[in-house]
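Predict the 3D structure for this chain.
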Amino acid sequence: MNSQSTRPLDANADPVSSAASATSSAWRGKLLVWLGLGLALPLTVQADLPAAIDKVKPSVVIVGSYKASNSPRFRLRGTGFVVGGGNLAVTNAHVLPDPSEDFSDSAMVLQVRVAPNELQMRPAQVVAVDREHDLALLRFEGPSVPALALRDSSTVREGQSIAFMGFPIGGALGFSPVTHRGLVSSITAAALPTPTAQQLNAKAIRGLRAGTFNIFQLDATAYPGNSGGPLFDPETGEVLGVINMVFIKGTKESALTHPSGISYAIPSTHVAQLLQRDKAN
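Done. Predicted structure below.
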Protein backbone atom coordinates (compact mmCIF):
# COMPACT_ATOMS: atom_id res chain seq x y z
CA MET A 1 0.00 0.00 0.00
CA ASN A 2 1.21 3.46 -0.76
CA SER A 3 1.98 5.25 2.48
CA GLN A 4 0.20 8.40 1.36
CA SER A 5 -3.38 8.61 0.15
CA THR A 6 -6.45 10.76 0.01
CA ARG A 7 -9.06 9.54 2.47
CA PRO A 8 -12.61 10.58 3.10
CA LEU A 9 -13.00 9.68 6.82
CA ASP A 10 -15.82 7.32 7.73
CA ALA A 11 -17.98 9.21 10.23
CA ASN A 12 -20.38 6.25 10.32
CA ALA A 13 -17.76 4.25 12.22
CA ASP A 14 -17.81 6.51 15.26
CA PRO A 15 -20.55 5.89 17.88
CA VAL A 16 -20.72 8.72 20.39
CA SER A 17 -19.86 6.47 23.31
CA SER A 18 -16.57 5.18 21.85
CA ALA A 19 -15.54 7.60 19.15
CA ALA A 20 -11.95 7.90 20.28
CA SER A 21 -11.20 4.24 21.06
CA ALA A 22 -13.17 1.75 18.95
CA THR A 23 -12.08 2.64 15.46
CA SER A 24 -8.44 1.66 14.92
CA SER A 25 -8.81 -1.95 13.69
CA ALA A 26 -11.75 -1.16 11.41
CA TRP A 27 -9.88 1.69 9.76
CA ARG A 28 -6.75 -0.19 8.65
CA GLY A 29 -6.11 -0.89 4.97
CA LYS A 30 -8.41 1.74 3.49
CA LEU A 31 -7.06 4.02 0.80
CA LEU A 32 -10.14 6.19 0.94
CA VAL A 33 -12.02 7.12 4.06
CA TRP A 34 -14.79 9.68 4.43
CA LEU A 35 -14.21 12.70 6.63
CA GLY A 36 -15.42 13.88 9.87
CA LEU A 37 -13.36 16.33 11.98
CA GLY A 38 -11.36 19.42 11.90
CA LEU A 39 -8.08 20.81 13.17
CA ALA A 40 -6.05 23.45 11.39
CA LEU A 41 -2.71 25.18 11.32
CA PRO A 42 -2.67 28.39 13.36
CA LEU A 43 -2.98 31.63 11.43
CA THR A 44 -3.42 35.23 12.44
CA VAL A 45 -6.90 35.49 13.91
CA GLN A 46 -9.18 37.79 11.93
CA ALA A 47 -10.74 40.52 14.04
CA ASP A 48 -14.21 39.44 12.86
CA LEU A 49 -13.80 35.70 13.49
CA PRO A 50 -15.42 35.72 16.98
CA ALA A 51 -18.47 37.49 15.54
CA ALA A 52 -18.60 35.02 12.64
CA ILE A 53 -18.47 32.09 15.06
CA ASP A 54 -21.37 33.55 17.05
CA LYS A 55 -23.31 33.81 13.80
CA VAL A 56 -22.54 30.32 12.50
CA LYS A 57 -22.77 28.25 15.70
CA PRO A 58 -26.60 28.28 16.15
CA SER A 59 -26.98 26.90 12.61
CA VAL A 60 -24.60 23.93 12.95
CA VAL A 61 -26.35 20.64 13.76
CA ILE A 62 -25.35 17.11 14.68
CA VAL A 63 -26.48 14.54 12.12
CA GLY A 64 -27.15 11.13 13.60
CA SER A 65 -29.39 8.12 13.94
CA TYR A 66 -31.62 7.00 16.80
CA LYS A 67 -32.58 3.47 17.79
CA ALA A 68 -34.36 2.84 21.07
CA SER A 69 -32.82 -0.61 21.57
CA ASN A 70 -29.22 0.56 21.07
CA SER A 71 -26.83 1.73 23.76
CA PRO A 72 -26.25 4.57 23.30
CA ARG A 73 -29.54 5.19 21.52
CA PHE A 74 -28.15 8.17 19.60
CA ARG A 75 -25.23 7.69 17.20
CA LEU A 76 -23.37 10.67 15.74
CA ARG A 77 -22.81 10.26 12.01
CA GLY A 78 -21.49 13.70 11.05
CA THR A 79 -22.10 17.43 11.01
CA GLY A 80 -24.61 19.52 9.08
CA PHE A 81 -25.78 23.11 8.84
CA VAL A 82 -29.15 24.78 8.35
CA VAL A 83 -30.04 26.50 5.06
CA GLY A 84 -33.09 27.78 3.22
CA GLY A 85 -36.14 28.60 5.30
CA GLY A 86 -34.79 27.13 8.52
CA ASN A 87 -36.03 23.53 8.30
CA LEU A 88 -33.46 22.18 5.84
CA ALA A 89 -29.95 20.99 6.65
CA VAL A 90 -27.02 20.15 4.37
CA THR A 91 -24.53 17.38 5.07
CA ASN A 92 -22.39 14.89 3.14
CA ALA A 93 -24.14 12.04 1.32
CA HIS A 94 -21.66 9.58 2.85
CA VAL A 95 -22.99 10.53 6.31
CA LEU A 96 -26.29 8.83 5.41
CA PRO A 97 -26.82 5.11 6.06
CA ASP A 98 -25.12 2.89 3.50
CA PRO A 99 -27.45 0.52 1.58
CA SER A 100 -25.58 -2.42 3.15
CA GLU A 101 -26.16 -1.08 6.67
CA ASP A 102 -28.90 -2.56 8.85
CA PHE A 103 -31.01 0.52 9.55
CA SER A 104 -34.13 -1.32 10.66
CA ASP A 105 -35.99 0.31 13.56
CA SER A 106 -33.63 3.30 13.28
CA ALA A 107 -34.44 6.87 12.35
CA MET A 108 -32.44 9.79 10.99
CA VAL A 109 -32.37 12.65 13.50
CA LEU A 110 -30.67 15.98 14.02
CA GLN A 111 -29.49 17.46 17.30
CA VAL A 112 -30.38 21.18 17.12
CA ARG A 113 -29.07 23.78 19.56
CA VAL A 114 -32.02 25.58 21.19
CA ALA A 115 -30.02 27.24 24.01
CA PRO A 116 -26.29 27.67 24.74
CA ASN A 117 -26.17 24.40 26.69
CA GLU A 118 -29.27 22.63 25.39
CA LEU A 119 -29.71 20.35 22.38
CA GLN A 120 -33.04 19.15 21.03
CA MET A 121 -33.49 16.00 18.93
CA ARG A 122 -35.49 16.51 15.73
CA PRO A 123 -36.74 13.75 13.38
CA ALA A 124 -35.37 14.25 9.87
CA GLN A 125 -35.84 12.79 6.43
CA VAL A 126 -33.71 12.86 3.29
CA VAL A 127 -35.28 15.01 0.58
CA ALA A 128 -32.46 15.21 -2.00
CA VAL A 129 -29.07 13.59 -2.62
CA ASP A 130 -26.24 14.60 -4.95
CA ARG A 131 -23.90 11.60 -5.00
CA GLU A 132 -21.50 13.12 -7.52
CA HIS A 133 -20.69 15.97 -5.11
CA ASP A 134 -21.29 13.93 -1.93
CA LEU A 135 -24.09 16.19 -0.68
CA ALA A 136 -27.45 15.49 0.95
CA LEU A 137 -30.38 17.69 1.95
CA LEU A 138 -32.44 16.82 5.04
CA ARG A 139 -35.76 18.27 6.17
CA PHE A 140 -36.30 18.29 9.93
CA GLU A 141 -39.37 18.79 12.09
CA GLY A 142 -40.12 21.45 14.67
CA PRO A 143 -39.56 25.21 14.83
CA SER A 144 -37.23 26.74 12.28
CA VAL A 145 -33.54 27.30 13.07
CA PRO A 146 -31.42 30.26 11.90
CA ALA A 147 -30.13 29.47 8.41
CA LEU A 148 -26.68 30.29 7.04
CA ALA A 149 -26.24 32.36 3.89
CA LEU A 150 -24.43 30.81 0.93
CA ARG A 151 -21.80 32.81 -0.92
CA ASP A 152 -21.06 32.19 -4.60
CA SER A 153 -18.03 29.90 -4.35
CA SER A 154 -16.71 31.11 -7.72
CA THR A 155 -15.50 34.19 -5.81
CA VAL A 156 -13.17 32.08 -3.62
CA ARG A 157 -9.47 32.59 -4.36
CA GLU A 158 -6.37 30.60 -3.50
CA GLY A 159 -4.74 32.03 -0.39
CA GLN A 160 -8.08 33.15 1.04
CA SER A 161 -8.60 32.68 4.79
CA ILE A 162 -11.30 30.21 5.83
CA ALA A 163 -12.78 28.64 8.95
CA PHE A 164 -14.85 25.52 9.49
CA MET A 165 -16.97 24.17 12.31
CA GLY A 166 -18.05 20.74 13.48
CA PHE A 167 -17.67 17.98 16.06
CA PRO A 168 -14.08 16.60 16.03
CA ILE A 169 -13.40 12.94 16.65
CA GLY A 170 -17.03 11.93 16.57
CA GLY A 171 -18.04 14.21 19.41
CA ALA A 172 -15.33 12.91 21.75
CA LEU A 173 -14.55 16.53 22.60
CA GLY A 174 -18.18 17.19 23.47
CA PHE A 175 -21.25 18.39 21.63
CA SER A 176 -20.30 22.05 21.44
CA PRO A 177 -19.28 22.96 17.88
CA VAL A 178 -15.54 23.41 17.46
CA THR A 179 -14.05 25.97 15.05
CA HIS A 180 -10.74 25.73 13.19
CA ARG A 181 -9.16 28.03 10.67
CA GLY A 182 -6.83 27.85 7.68
CA LEU A 183 -6.66 29.00 4.08
CA VAL A 184 -7.51 27.77 0.60
CA SER A 185 -4.20 26.34 -0.59
CA SER A 186 -5.45 25.21 -4.00
CA ILE A 187 -8.54 25.08 -6.18
CA THR A 188 -8.19 21.92 -8.21
CA ALA A 189 -10.24 19.51 -10.29
CA ALA A 190 -11.33 16.30 -8.59
CA ALA A 191 -13.71 13.39 -8.94
CA LEU A 192 -14.92 12.00 -5.62
CA PRO A 193 -14.51 8.27 -4.89
CA THR A 194 -17.45 6.19 -3.78
CA PRO A 195 -17.92 5.91 0.01
CA THR A 196 -17.49 2.13 -0.19
CA ALA A 197 -14.18 2.21 -2.07
CA GLN A 198 -11.60 0.02 -0.34
CA GLN A 199 -8.78 0.45 -2.87
CA LEU A 200 -7.91 2.58 -5.86
CA ASN A 201 -6.48 1.00 -8.98
CA ALA A 202 -4.42 2.95 -11.53
CA LYS A 203 -7.46 3.72 -13.67
CA ALA A 204 -9.42 5.08 -10.70
CA ILE A 205 -6.50 7.26 -9.60
CA ARG A 206 -6.21 8.74 -13.11
CA GLY A 207 -9.93 9.49 -12.95
CA LEU A 208 -9.56 11.31 -9.64
CA ARG A 209 -6.75 13.44 -11.02
CA ALA A 210 -8.60 14.21 -14.23
CA GLY A 211 -11.49 15.51 -12.18
CA THR A 212 -15.07 16.42 -12.99
CA PHE A 213 -15.44 19.58 -10.90
CA ASN A 214 -13.31 21.97 -8.84
CA ILE A 215 -12.75 21.29 -5.16
CA PHE A 216 -11.09 23.38 -2.43
CA GLN A 217 -7.86 22.04 -0.96
CA LEU A 218 -7.25 23.48 2.50
CA ASP A 219 -4.16 23.74 4.70
CA ALA A 220 -6.19 22.30 7.57
CA THR A 221 -6.58 18.82 9.01
CA ALA A 222 -10.02 17.27 9.45
CA TYR A 223 -11.01 14.09 11.29
CA PRO A 224 -14.13 11.88 11.67
CA GLY A 225 -17.10 13.81 13.01
CA ASN A 226 -16.78 16.96 10.90
CA SER A 227 -18.08 15.52 7.62
CA GLY A 228 -20.75 17.85 6.25
CA GLY A 229 -19.73 20.85 8.37
CA PRO A 230 -19.70 24.35 6.89
CA LEU A 231 -16.59 25.96 5.45
CA PHE A 232 -17.17 29.67 5.97
CA ASP A 233 -15.76 33.15 5.55
CA PRO A 234 -14.16 34.08 8.90
CA GLU A 235 -15.23 37.71 8.48
CA THR A 236 -18.87 37.32 7.44
CA GLY A 237 -19.90 33.77 8.37
CA GLU A 238 -21.13 33.10 4.81
CA VAL A 239 -20.81 29.48 3.67
CA LEU A 240 -18.13 28.84 1.05
CA GLY A 241 -18.29 25.05 0.99
CA VAL A 242 -18.82 21.75 2.83
CA ILE A 243 -15.99 19.84 4.57
CA ASN A 244 -15.53 16.50 2.86
CA MET A 245 -12.23 14.58 3.00
CA VAL A 246 -8.66 14.59 4.24
CA PHE A 247 -5.24 13.52 2.97
CA ILE A 248 -3.75 10.86 5.24
CA LYS A 249 -0.16 9.60 5.34
CA GLY A 250 -0.54 5.85 5.81
CA THR A 251 -3.50 4.35 7.67
CA LYS A 252 -6.49 6.14 9.17
CA GLU A 253 -5.03 5.83 12.66
CA SER A 254 -2.15 8.09 11.58
CA ALA A 255 -4.61 10.95 11.02
CA LEU A 256 -4.76 11.37 14.80
CA THR A 257 -1.03 10.99 15.52
CA HIS A 258 0.53 12.46 12.35
CA PRO A 259 -2.03 14.77 10.67
CA SER A 260 -1.14 15.92 7.17
CA GLY A 261 -2.69 19.38 7.45
CA ILE A 262 -4.48 18.92 4.10
CA SER A 263 -8.26 18.62 3.77
CA TYR A 264 -10.87 19.19 1.06
CA ALA A 265 -14.24 20.91 0.79
CA ILE A 266 -17.05 20.86 -1.78
CA PRO A 267 -17.75 24.39 -3.15
CA SER A 268 -21.04 25.97 -2.07
CA THR A 269 -22.27 26.34 -5.65
CA HIS A 270 -23.25 22.66 -5.53
CA VAL A 271 -25.25 23.28 -2.34
CA ALA A 272 -27.14 26.06 -4.11
CA GLN A 273 -27.88 23.71 -7.02
CA LEU A 274 -29.20 21.07 -4.61
CA LEU A 275 -31.52 23.63 -3.02
CA GLN A 276 -32.80 24.70 -6.44
CA ARG A 277 -33.47 21.06 -7.31
CA ASP A 278 -35.49 20.67 -4.11
CA LYS A 279 -37.54 23.79 -4.90
CA ALA A 280 -38.25 22.49 -8.38
CA ASN A 281 -39.69 19.31 -6.90
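The first strand starts at residue 4 and ends at 7.
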